[in-house]
Here is the input.
Amino acid sequence: MSALAGLADPVLDSQRIFRGVLDAMAHPGRIVDLPEPRQSPAALCPATTSICLTLVDLDTPIWLDAGARTPEAIDYLRFHCGCPVATEPGAARFAVVGEPWRMPALDLFDAGTDEYPDRSATVIVQVESLVGGGGARLTGPGIDGEARLEAVGLPASFWDALERNGGRFPRGVDVILAARHAITALPRSTRARAH
Amino acid sequence: MSDDTPRRRRWMSALAQSAVEDLERAWERLPSQPAYRVLRGPEVGSVMVRGRAGGTGAVFNLGEMTVTRCTVALASGVVGHAYVSGRTRRHAERAAVLDALLQDPATGASLEETVIAPLIESREARRRCVAARAAATRVEFFTMVRGEE
Here is the structure.
């Protein structure tokens, strides 16, 4: 039983968070600050919790990696979102990766079908920071010319995995990087070149 | 199912079905108003009430009803829940705090005496009152035996 509170204002906060995620997805690489929940399980950063409280419900199974799969986080998500917790990455609509250095291959997640590419998973990767560290140059829809993205805590193989994910377009997963209360989105339409 | 489940069922039902005024009075009579924080709600939503024809038939949807729910945590960490019909947020909040207090082994037993028993008594009195009003308008149907040819 979770003893942690969710959003302070469930209606308005979830609308603000939805808007923030939309903004981030429409402008890959842009850093967007999300309203924080009143409390968050230790294994999830506030931005991850905010996204879950807004987008995850009983129709969207969530998968948590070893770093995020704590009893506290599972209790919290079950109580506030009412969502099933998937045991296999492929069964999930949302996934949270708390240990990016041991990230499962992106093609393990549901990439949708050619008819319904929207029925794919969204993978939230928790990083230490979105300032400093290894980076990439981003191009693609929503980016005027080129955008630069930095993240601390991502393995070098992440960018190759992202490139392979983009190669499956229109299928593929959408990735959100989360650090504390900030997010930046890497939808499948974005091309990233590590530098 | 733990041993406390039937007891908790009894008090949760009493709290949910009590009149808000009775609950407020019980609240004010508490030796001390407990400190608590709200984990969720009180929020209004709807639930689908389902039934079975004759109690054993196929499930059918009877209709939706408005429900208010609330979850609170006491300073001790005990969590209390309440689901009450209607839209009275205060009712759900009070009921959730009392549910948490009732789970506390130190205070629970005495609260069952001082709070829950009177609430159940007052619920039964309301029921008897409605039943008496309805009984006054009861129409007895009977069939007169027709004379056989």
User: Anything to note?
Assistant: The two ends of chain B are 65 Å apart (CA to CA). The CA atoms of residues 11 and 116 of chain B lie 6 Å apart. Chain B has four helices and three strands.
